[in-house]
Design a protein that fits this description.
globular; about 25% helix; 2 domains; ten-stranded mixed sheet; about 450 residues; about 35% strand; alpha/beta; 11 helices; 13-stranded mixed sheet
Length: about 450
C-alpha cells in the first residue's frame, strides 16, 4: 500500500491513512466520499489569490514524534519549543487539560482527574472515533464536505485533533487547551476538533497554533465543530502565529440551541494567506453568540477574516467585533455576515470593524452583509479606518521609547477590547509576539 508520506492525494492514499489509524468502516467511507466531493468542487472564487498553493506539493501525513505520557519524555528540541511557549507551566497552574500535536499526530495529552470523575471526555479525535461509535451522528454534520473545497479536503485527510464531551449540567471551570505545531517542511495539518456541550454545561477551550518558516509553503486546514445544546455555554479562544509562507484555510462553525451561548475569541498573526470566518447558527430561542477577533497583517500577508451569525430562531442575538492592524504591503479584509430568517423575530445583531493602518501602502477592506427576512429585528454595522497618529508616536518617542516600543504601545491600546477577553497568560504571550514583530519591522 502506498506510503502515507506520499504527496499524491488519491483513493489509495486515503484508504491507507484510514487503515493506519484502525478506523471503523463508516469513517473510511466518509473519507472516500469527502475525497470525491473535493475532486469536484472548485477553489474559492472570492478573496485572496490561492494560485501559488500547490496541493500536489504537500505531504498529507507526517508523524515525526511518537506520543509520550510525560513532557519530560519528548525529544529535546520539541521540549524546548513547548517550554518556551509555557505549556508545561500553564498545565500545572491554569489548565484543566492539555493536548499537544506536532504535524499530523498528537504527542501528549492530560486531563485533571476531578473532571474525569465528572464524566468529561477530553481525548484525541482518533481515539474518540474508535471508542465512541455514536460520534458518527455528529462528525462533519455541522460542516458537511459539500460546504467548500477545503472542508472536503479536510474530511478526506483529517488527522489528529480533539474531542470534548461535557455531560449535562457539568461546568468545566478551568480552561482546556490544545496546541498545534507544524514542524515539518511542506506539510499539511488537518486536525479536527469536535465539542459537544450537553444541556446546562459549560467550558472554555483554548487553541494555540504555530509554525516556523521553511523554504516550502505549508497548509493548515483544520476544522472546528461545536454543538451547544439547550442552555450550554462554550467559549473558543484561538491564538495563531503561523509562518509567513503558510496558508491558513480553516473552517469553524457552531450550532447553538435554545438559551445556549457560543463565543469566539481569536488573535491571528502570521501566514501568507488566512481565510477564516467562524460561524454560529442560532437554532433555538434566546441563543446568543459573540465573536471578538484581532488580526495583524504584515508585509506580504493577506488576512481575509470575519464572522457569521445565522439567526434561525426568535429572540436570538449576535455581536461581531473585529480589530485589524496592517503594516507594510499587506491586506486585511473583514467579512461580517448576519442573516435573519423569517421565523427569527426579535433577533438582534451588531457588527463592528476597526482597522489601524501603520504604513501608506497598507490596504484594508470591510465587506458587511446584513440580510433580514422579517421586519422585527435590530441590526447595526459600523466600521472605522485610521492611520497611526504621528503626534502620539512623536510624543512617545520623545519620552524615551524607541519606535518599535511606541508602535507596540499604540497597537496594544487599539486592540485592548479583544486582549482583555483572552486569559491573562495568553494575552501576555500575544503582546510579546506583537513586540517581536515590531522589533523586526523597525529594526
Amino acid at each position: 500500500m502506498k506510503r502515507l508520506a506520499s504527496a499524491c492525494l488519491d483513493r489509495e492514499f486515503v484508504e491507507a491513512l484510514s487503515y493506519e489509524k484502525n478506523e471503523p468502516a463508516w469513517m473510511r467511507a466518509h473519507r472516500l466520499r469527502c475525497l470525491s466531493v473535493f475532486e469536484k468542487l472548485p477553489m474559492p472564487k472570492f478573496g485572496p489569490d490561492l494560485s501559488e498553493l500547490d496541493l500536489g506539493d504537500l505531504t498529507y501525513y507526517a508523524r515525526p514524534v511518537e506520543p509520550v505520557s510525560r513532557w519530560e519524555d519528548l525529544p529535546e528540541e520539541l521540549k524546548k519549543t513547548f517550554q518556551a511557549l509555557g505549556l508545561p507551566e500553564a498545565e500545572q497552574r491554569a489548565l484543566a487539560g492539555v493536548g499537544a500535536q506536532v504535524d499530523s499526530e498528537e504527542v501528549y495529552r492530560s486531563l485533571l482527574e476531578s473532571l474525569r470523575q465528572k464524566g468529561v471526555i477530553f481525548t484525541s479525535m482518533e481515539k474518540a472515533v474508535r471508542e465512541y461509535p455514536w460520534i458518527q451522528e455528529y462528525f462533519m454534520k455541522v460542516i458537511p464536505p459539500e460546504d467548500n473545497k477545503f472542508a472536503a479536503l479536510h474530511g478526506a485527510v483529517w488527522s489528529g485533533g480533539t474531542f470534548i464531551w461535557v455531560p449535562e449540567g457539568v461546568e468545566v471551570e478551568i480552561p482546556l487547551q490544545a496546541y498545534y505545531r507544524i514542524q515539518t517542511e511542506g506539510v499539511g495539518q488537518f486536525e479536527h476538533t469536535l465539542i459537544i456541550a450537553e444541556p446546562g454545561s459549560s467550558l472554555h477551550y483554548i487553541e494555540g497554533c504555530s509554525a516556523p518558516r521553511y523554504s516550502r509553503m505549508s497548509l493548515h486546514s483544520g476544522m472546528v465543530e461545536i454543538i451547544a445544546k439547550e442552555g450550554a455555554r462554550v467559549r473558543f479562544t484561538t491564538i495563531q502565529n503561523w509562518s509567513k509562507n503558510g496558508y491558513n484555510l480553516n473552517n469553524k462553525r457552531a450550532w447553538a440551541y435554545a438559551g445556549a451561548s457560543v463565543d469566539w475569541v481569536s488573535g491571528s498573526l502570521g501566514s501568507k494567506v488566512t481565510m477564516l470566518y467562524p460561524t454560529t447558527v442560532l437554532l433555538g430561542k434566546g441563543a446568543r453568540t459573540e465573536n471578538l477577533s484581532f488580526t495583524f497583517a504584515q508585509e506580504g500577508m493577506w488576512l481575509d477574516t470575519g464572522a457569521r451569525a445565522i439567526h434561525r430562531a426568535p429572540d436570538t442575538s449576535a455581536r461581531l467585533v473585529s480589530r485589524s492592524v496592517v503594516q507594510g504591503r499587506a491586506m486585511s479584509v473583514f467579512r461580517g455576515t448576519v442573516y435573519v430568517s423569517p421565523e427569527a423575530r426579535g433577533a438582534k445583531a451588531h457588527v463592528e470593524c476597526s482597522t489601524l493602518l501603520l504604513s501608506p501602502e497598507a490596504k484594508t477592506e470591510t465587506i458587511p452583509v446584513l440580510r433580514a427576512e422579517n421586519d422585527e429585528v435590530e441590526l447595526g454595522h459600523e466600521a472605522t479606518v485610521g492611520r497611526v497618529s504621528q503626534e502620539q508616536l512623536f510624543y512617545l518617542v520623545s519620552r524615551g521609547l524607541d519606535e518599535s516600543q511606541a508602535l507596540s504601545l499604540l497597537v496594544n491600546g487599539f486592540v485592548s477590547p479583544i486582549l482583555k477577553e483572552i486569559p491573562l497568560e495568553y494575552a501576555v504571550e500575544l503582546r510579546r509576539l506583537l513586540e517581536m514583530s515590531f522589533e523586526k519591522a523597525t529594526g
